[in-house]
Specification:
This protein has 66 residues and is an alpha+beta fold. The chain has a single domain, classed as N-terminal domain of TfIIb, CATH 2.20.25. 23% of the residues lie in helices and 24% in strands. The protein contains 1 helix and 4 strands. The chain is elongated.
Amino acid sequence: MTEKKNYKGGYGPRYGRKTRALVGEIEEKQRSKQVCPKCQKAAKRLEAGVYECPKCGKFTGGAYYL
């Protein structure tokens, strides 16, 4: 079995190159570290549009990334 190099690798030959590329970019941004807009500390994505900052608590933002 081959290794997946990025998030796009999970789709194989399905859905077309352009669609996989767009989804891959979104997934890459959503899984990266987000920054709290108030205190500039690292915020964790809990679910779509809900983030949690260790200092400020929960807040809402963009569905995929801030």
